[in-house]
Design brief:
Layout: H1 2-19, H2 25-41, H3 46-62, H4 71-86, E1 102-107, H5 114-127, E2 132-136, H6 144-155, E3 159-160, H7 168-178, E4 184-188, H8 196-210, E5 214-220, H9 226-237, E6 242-246, H10 254-262, E7 268-272, E8 280-282, H11 285-292, H12 298-311, H13 314-321, H14 327-338, H15 343-348, H16 359-377, H17 381-385, H18 392-402, H19 406-429
Parallel strand pairs: 1-4, 1-5, 2-3, 2-4, 5-6, 6-7
Antiparallel strand pairs: 7-8
Helix pairs in contact: 1-2, 2-3, 3-4, 4-11, 5-6, 7-8, 9-10, 14-16, 16-18, 18-19
This protein binds guanosine-5'-diphosphate (GDP) and magnesium ion.
Residues 114-115, 138, 144 line the site of magnesium ion (MG).
């Protein structure tokens, strides 16, 4: 599937960033180029591609990295945010309330996937406890009513139509009357070839007659960048409330359609990623990008990253880097990791780590962290600030106080010394591209 290909090439581009020994200008430029290539292959508009890659490069190179996160994390975040941005805003939620009927009208050219989408949407709302019904106003295509009837049966949703009636507005009004006690009524409409003029006239008339709460434009996801033209033409005729991009499953050009549509102003509300009746989902740009990149839920990682930005003041970061790293600092690090949830969740949120760590190793690491927290808790404030004073007798006391073994206390102290040394070397190296602001790389 084309979207998967786009996802894997974007992911490969990021993977190079994770693996690069240093995050310098060359790595960032290469990343920007790789992303360009990936987006162009997915048929995203050239101008847009250049815009995105330039923004990524500029932000990655110039933006100040917030204290407490690594340059790599920052670059990942930038890529993620910029990809999300180009997919458009998340639409305001469709508020469907029991007892307050919502009328949704689907429009779009013939073959775009309206009828299929109507049934999928009906099932979607029905499953969420809303009393849903379908109305077929397609008086043009022979068998249109039968098609919707058949799909509605699969969705287990009632459908109204009248194959003998030619006036589509009349059918719509009759249908609305019949389903007056429903929560959601979805109106499927005819879409005539590409004679857009008469189609759009028809759509306007019908819209006036039934005054739907939202007009949803259905776009065929396989048409690539043309999607923008189509969406624009419809949008100019009647305000389109939102867009549903269908057929994103088989598409060779999914990235093109998505990005094109996202630029016209109306938000994408739903996407359809398969032929089955259940294959429909709300479109959340950030989640979509996360999944596209196969990164687990990067959104929540970013939220955590943001929390961490608030928690670790810059002053403290500087102290770390100057080698003034005490056990109190280390304890705070453990605490902030704890507030991020079990270690395995934290690691799963880190791009590239998704599948690599064996479960037993995770458990061991989690246990060790727990123990170390308790050990540090059993120290006096002075010992935490100046771990050097921890003599054999003090170590014995701490072990007893924390219910651990002396060996474990010593192990913690070894770890602490290692970390401190690492930070000192990092500072001395003055990584090329960060200058004084150098941060641990991973
Ligand atoms: P309409 O003319 O706009 O009502 O379009 P239809 O709903 O009749 O769909 C046209 C064709 O596209 C049919 O053959 C559908 O089975 C197919 N189709 C619609 N939606 C999807 C989808 O999300 N994925 C795939 N693979 N096919 C779809
Ligand atoms: Mg149809």
């Amino acid at each position: 599937m084309a979207l998967e290909r786009l996802g894997s090439s974007l992911y490969e581009a990021l993977r190079k960033v994770f693996k690069a020994p240093v995050m310098d200008e060359k790595t960032v430029k290469e990343l920007a180029r790789d992303i360009q290539r990936a987006l162009l292959q997915a048929d995203v508009n050239v101008k847009l591609v250049l815009e995105i890659s330039k923004r990524i490069e500029d932000r990655a190179l110039k933006e100040k990295v917030p204290p407490g996160i690594s340059r790599r994390e920052h670059v990942t975040k930038v890529v993620y945010e910029e990809l999300t941005r180009f997919l458009g805003e998340k639409p305001a939620p469709l508020k469907t309330e029991p007892g307050k009927r919502k009328v949704l009208m689907l429009v779009g050219i013939q073959g775009s996937g309206k009828t299929t989408a109507a049934a999928k949407l009906a099932k979607y709302f029905q499953k969420r406890g809303l009393k849903t019904a379908l109305v077929c106003t397609d008086t043009y295509r022979p068998g249109a009513y039968a098609q919707l009837q058949q799909l509605a049966k699969r969705a287990n949703v009632p459908v109204y139509g009248d194959p003998k009636e030619k006036k589509y507005a009349k059918i719509a009004l009759n249908g609305l009357k019949q389903f007056s006690d429903h929560d959601v009524v979805i109106i499927d409409t005819a879409g005539r070839h590409k004679e857009e003029k008469s189609l759009i006239e028809e759509m306007k008339k019908l819209e006036k007659a039934i005054k739907p709460n939202e007009v949803i434009l259905v776009i065929d996801g396989t048409i690539g960048q043309q999607a923008a033209l189509q969406a624009k033409a419809f949008h100019e005729a009647t305000p389109i409330g939102s867009i549903l991009v269908a057929k994103l499953d088989g598409s060779a050009r999914g990235g093109g359609a998505l990005s094109a549509v996202a630029t016209i102003g109306a938000p994408i509300r739903f996407i359809s990623l398969g032929e089955k009746i259940g294959d429909i989902e709300p479109f959340v740009p950030s989640r979509f990008v996360g999944r596209l990149l196969g990164m687990g839920d990067l959104q929540s990682l970013i939220e955590k990253v943001r929390e961490a930005e608030v928690k670790v003041p810059e002053r403290k970061m500087r102290a770390f880097l100057s080698g003034r790293f005490t056990l109190t600092d280390m304890y705070e690090q453990f605490e902030s990791m704890k507030s991020m949830g079990p270690l395995r969740h934290v690691l799963k949120m880190i791009p590239g780590m998704t599948y690599n760590i064996p479960e037993e190793m995770m458990e061991t690491a989690e246990d060790a962290l727990k123990k170390w927290r308790v050990i540090i808790q059993s120290m006096t404030p002075e010992e935490r600030e100046k771990p050097k004073i921890l003599s054999a007798s003090r170590i014995r006391r701490v072990a007893r106080g924390s219910g651990t073994k002396e060996k474990e206390v010593k192990e913690l102290l070894e770890r602490y010394n290692m970390l401190r040394k690492m930070m000192k070397t990092l500072r001395r190296k003055r990584l090329p591209f960060f200058g004084k602001k150098g941060l641990p790389l991973t």
